[in-house]
Design goal:
It catalyses: glutathione = L-cysteinylglycine + 5-oxo-L-proline. It holds the Pfam family ChaC. Its main location: cytoplasm. The protein is of the alpha+beta class and 192 residues long. The protein has one domain: Hypothetical upf0131 protein ytfp. It contains 4 helices and 7 strands; from the N terminus they run βββαββαββαα. A 5-stranded mixed barrel has the order 1-3-2-4-5. A two-stranded antiparallel ribbon has the order 6-7. The radius of gyration is 17 Å and the shape is globular. The C terminus is likely disordered.
Length: 192
Amino acid sequence: LWIFGYGSLVWRPGFEFTSRKVGFIRGYSRRFWQGDTFHRGSEAMLQHPVTTLSFCSQACTWGVAYEVRGEQIAASLQYLNMREAVLGGYDTKLVKFHPQEKDGEEPFLALVYIATPQNPSYLGPASEEDIAAQIVVSSGCAGHNIEYLMRLADFMRYFCPQAEDKHLFSIEEALISILPRLYCRDESLEET
């Protein structure tokens, strides 16, 4: 079984796997439209955006496919069903994964978790500036949401430099423009 990750799974799968491949799926774009009240957020504030996929026939989303075999299959699915489905509100789907390395390998099917608009934690579209402002104030048991955004942007830069992810990088840019203002505000508070 192959499992495709496009959010925190690209750097923290949390399950044992046999191999991994960087690549992409077609027909979806990565969007920070899913709310998280556990991993990167809390019940007190529901506006903690993490990624989901939005259907877009012309788009592709880059990430990592993990191969799990034997006993790894049941263990990884049990872990991911709790992490993504129960706590995150995602549904599963099979998609065609295209490996980055073109060593004669054909695309193959991979399992992916996708949040839908019917999900109670689904936030839907917002401006990159609004999403960045929400990310700045969001943290949960897995860490701060800034880390989530920056690690995902770093993954794209280092492993998929040829790929474009305007939504992700626009949010990162908006977040970076907010941080100096927050830092200056904290310094002025210390002086009083």
